[in-house]
Specification:
Blueprint (H helix, E strand, L loop, with lengths): L11 E5 L1 H9 L5 E7 L4 H14 L3 E4 L1 H8 L8 E6 L4 E2 H4 L6 E6 L4 H14 L3 E3 L10 H6 L9 E3 L3 H10 L3 E5 L16 E6 L7 H4 L4 E3 L12 H15 L4
Parallel strand pairs: 2-3, 5-8, 6-7, 6-10, 7-8, 9-10, 9-11
Antiparallel strand pairs: 1-4, 2-4
Helix pairs in contact: 1-2, 5-9
Length: 252
């Protein structure tokens, strides 16, 4: 079923902590929707954030320290402040399917923020039409992901949905071939024939592609590795995949 309302989580990336919030406010290329400051935040640090927000024309809301922790999702590092940064290319997967991007990635169980951030950076650089980042089962789009992406996460074509299994079902129903990268078996990525529209599943660091998604996979692809190494880190595998699509001229 198509989503009828857009969640704030599908419009903004939330950054927390004094330094990340100040960096977002000072970046002329970013649009900050609002800053939320804990009512317990006082002193020079809070004043600096308020000055930066005023200079950027960004409203500052006060909330309880508990509320800030809940919204940040990280009670140990929020430092009593967070900011919602507009991610202009982030939208629900259901909305993106109406435009039918030719090539998309689907992240399935990737829980290391550094891997998610590097995949977002690589896929955006390669010009892919979308990167599906489910809200559950994948590392949250937080400052660690933003840092690993070197800030590209704000501009990445992120597509949101509840779970990887839901995304896989939606993609198959929309006519996409669903291909999973695996360490063993399957034709070479460099030689496989791909349909006009294809989605590529990148499985988690330890468990790989989930059973629910594997049931819907059209086929498995492998990356040839003549050396004595069993597999690549998932972000390295994503880079190989993305730039093979660039070589083919079929990223979008």
């Amino acid at each position: 079923m198509a989503e009828t309302t857009v969640s704030p989580k599908d419009r903004f990336l939330t950054v927390y902590g004094r330094k990340p919030v100040l960096e977002a406010l000072d970046d002329p290329e970013l649009r900050v929707d609002k800053v939320i400051l804990a009512d317990t935040a006082r002193g020079p640090a809070a004043a600096e954030i308020q000055r930066a927000a005023k200079a950027a024309g960004v409203p500052v809301q006060r909330a309880s320290a508990h509320r800030v922790k809940v919204l940040a999702g990280n009670g140990k590092q929020d430092q009593g402040v967070l900011a919602d940064v507009v991610a202009p290319r982030m939208r629900p997967l259901s909305a993106a399917l109406a435009d039918a991007p030719a090539r998309v990635l689907l992240l399935d169980g990737i829980t290391t923020p550094a891997n998610v951030g590097m995949i977002l950076r690589t896929a955006t650089a390669a010009g892919l039409g979308g990167i599906v980042v489910p809200r559950r089962g994948v590392a949250a789009l937080d400052p660690l992901v933003v840092k690993a992406s070197a800030g590209v996460a704000f501009r990445a074509p992120v597509l949101r949905c509840a779970t990887a299994a839901e995304a896989a079902s939606m993609l198959v129903e929309a006519g996409y071939g669903l291909y999973a990268l695996g360490a063993q078996g399957g034709p070479s990525l460099f030689e496989a024939s791909l349909p006009e529209r294809a989605a590529f599943v990148l499985g988690g660091e330890t468990a790989g592609v989930s059973d629910e998604v594997a049931e819907l996979v059209t086929g498995w692809l492998s990356i040839p590795m003549p050396g004595e190494v069993e597999s690549l880190n998932v972000s390295a595998a994503a880079a190989v995949l993305c730039f093979e699509l660039v070589r083919r001229g079929t990223t979008r």
